[in-house]
Amino acid sequence: MSGQERENFMLSIILNKISLLNQLQDVNTILDATLFEARHLTHADAGSIFLVKKGRLEFCHVQNDTLFGTKGAGAARYRNTSVPISEDSIVGFSALTREVVTIDDAYHISSDVPYKFNESFDERNCYHTTSILAVPLVSLDNRAVVGVMQLINAQDEQGQVIQFSEQSKMWVRVFSNNAAAIIERSMLNHELILRMVKMAELHDPEETGAHVQRVSAYSVEIYKRWAEKRNIPSAEIIKYSDLLSRAALLHDAGKVGIPDAILKKPGPLTDEEFEQIKNHTVSGAALFTNISSELDQMTHDIVLHHHERWNGQGYPGRLVEVGEKSVRKPLAGKEIPFAARIVALADVFDALSSERCYKPPWDNKKIYNEICKDSGVYFDPELVEAFFEITDILHAIQEKFT
Ligand SMILES: [Fe+2]
Ligand SMILES: [Fe+2]
Fold it and tell me: Which entry of 37, 253, 266, 326 is 20 to 30 Å from 281 by CA?
């Protein structure tokens, strides 16, 4: 292959990767795909992405084939840490100067540069970082730095760790410039949804931004484990997670319609008041009846059915015509939309593990006993099984979104 042919070939690969990213909307799904594709381009064993939030670089994603395999980094993904945008760290320097930083040996960095390699990840995980390529994620119009992607340990065909090549640097830069625009767009969309949730939050002290972010993250992780156990193709898992992550954020959107006097009532509710609370499912779903996308459909299903129970004793059930009248009949088992079954479990887990005005947070043992007892009664037993396999990830999510 001539030099020009090789260049055209690489450009077509990068365009293909960008078009895959462009089909996604959820910020976390996009970060996962961005890191995976950048590692593929550079043959990197590992990598992480930091995003600029509140003037710092917040750790947002990690992959490491040696430590975690190809199934994702589990609880390590939700590590709650950030670094300043300063010359002291490699990613901080890259964000500050907008320069690509290349390091051939992390443990022998020249004393001419201001940054140092932070050994804590290696020490914690018994990993050995050698080569590093830190690439700033700069918005397409060059206006802002969105974050930094750090690629670790380039490998040759035999799996030996080598330096990042000049070509790798060039191609990953082209890819990152485009990926940054897609990440930035998804961050703006995420913020927009969280702003809508904040309207409900002002109204309902239980529906906080942190609560909905936890429920969304729990839902995606429970789904992923369920899907991986069933060998669902990874493209399908990515697509479903991309929708579920955003739709789950809006599960209680209907609470904006409930009067404050009921939502914030300290004492027990009357039957009539409880009926009004239950109606948040139907009134919320009415916001999504004009279904024009798969996201609308999933959000509608979650909002309407996230209080259904596996045994048919939840609400609001389905609407059926009886003579001239429409009445609600119970919905049970697999009749309940799958996404709503997932969010039902995630939402109850979060309620049990959080402090509420009427109760302190339950300890893990009590929560697990309750969820185990309700498997096949309130919750889909297959989802409860997946839940118990990822409790370390669920608790890492709790720590991250406090
Ligand atoms: Fe609800
Ligand atoms: Fe909720």
Answer: 266
Ligand 2 centroid distance, CA of 5 (Å) = 54
Contacts of 194 (CB under 8 A, 6+ apart): 209, 212, 213, 249
Distance 318 CA to ligand 1 centre (A): 16
CA of 339 to the centre of ligand 1 (A): 14
Under 8 Å between Cβ of 57 and 84: yes
DSSP-derived secondary structure for 30-59: HHHHHHHHHHHHHTEEEEEEEEEETTEEEE
**Residue 278 CA to ligand 1 centre (angstroms):** 8
Q: pTM for the whole thing?
A: 0.92
DSSP annotation of 139 reads -
CA 189 to ligand 1 centroid distance, Å: 23
Query: pLDDT digit string (tens) for 209-222?
Result: 899 999 999 999 99
Domain ranges of the chain: 3-186, 204-400
Q: Is the peptide bond before 316 cis (omega within 30 degrees of 0)?
A: yes
Query: Which-ligand-closest: CA of 207?
Result: 2
DSSP H helices, 204-257, are 209-229, 234-249
Q: Per CATH, is 204-400 categorized as 1.20.1070.10?
A: no
Distance CA 220, CA 230 (A): 15
From the CA of 272, how far away is ligand 1's center (Å)?
Answer: 17
Amino acid at 345: L
Asked if the model's pLDDT at residue 166 lies above 80, the reply is yes
The CATH number of the structural domain formed by 3-186 is 3.30.450.40
Ligand nearest to the CA of 285: 1
Q: Quote the ligand 1 centre to 250 CA distance (angstroms).
A: 10
What residues have CB less than 8 Å from 322, skipping those under 6 apart? none
**Burial classification of residue 7, based on how many CB atoms lie within 10 Å of its CB (0-12 exposed, 13-18 middle, 19 or more buried):** middle
Ligand 1 centroid from CA 366, angstroms: 22
